[in-house]
Amino acid sequence: MIRVLLADDEAMIRAGVRAILSADPDVQVVAEAGDGHEAIELALAHRPDVALLDIRMPRLDGLAAAAELRRVAPGTAVVMLTTFSEDDYIARALADGAAGFLLKSGDPRELIAGVRAVAGGAAYLSPKVAHRLITELRGGRLAHGAAARGRIEALTPREREVLALVGAGLSNAEIAARLHVVEGTVKSYVSAILTRLEVRNRVQAAIIAYEAGLC
Asked: How far apart are CA 139 and CA 68, in angstroms?
């Protein structure tokens, strides 16, 4: 069962998202919050697998809440849920440790897919967000390629192999199947990679993999 915390200051939005998630028998909404402060309190109380955070909320917005959750509840994967698709929101959300970014105007199936992906240790971006990010990466790949290749020199050959698969969007379970190892081993590799690269999450690691030409 994937346990989810939902945070949005609009009750109708929360009801709609809860209805979509409840349609999946493997997903359970364990708590709902109306602002960022409440989201953090409930995350500490319930320890959900995934926190769905609206970006614009009173008292404490979703971006600040994501950064705080990264500190106090690292076991909870954060997915940003918003109506805004501006590049600065995307960049800030990923920098603050978010593992996913979904638009409220997207297909409801994206919501289920996103929750399942981040709960399984992968990252997830809605197609529109992914398109924006890829376009930006293509523009900066040559400029950042040398720096990225320098950063991955600290990795072992096996860690580079795992990083390439992370960059390709595979979950821990999928990487384990590809490499014929147990999922726990993959988690250890990913943790080591994040530490060596000095990044917060899989999305940032995937960007380095792309810039370095691993995928």
From this structure: 31
The per-residue pLDDT for range 37-87, each reduced to its tens digit, is: 999 999 999 999 999 999 889 888 998 999 899 889 989 999 998 876 666
Confidence (pTM): 0.69
Residue 142's pLDDT band, with cuts at 50, 70 and 90, is very low
CA distance 2 to 119: 7
Main-chain dihedrals φ then ψ at residue 117, nearest 5 degrees: -65, -50
Q: In what order do the strands lie in the sheet containing 77-82?
A: 27-33, 2-7, 50-54, 77-82, 100-103, 124-125
Domain hosting residue 87, numbered range: 2-129
Q: For residues 212 and 199, what is the distance between their CA atoms, to the nearest angstrom?
A: 15
Residue at which a domain ends, from 100, 129, 158: 129
CATH code, domain with 59: 3.40.50.2300
Instruction: Supply the angle between the helices 202-211 and 127-152 in degrees, to the nearest 10.
Output: 70
135 belongs to a structural domain: no
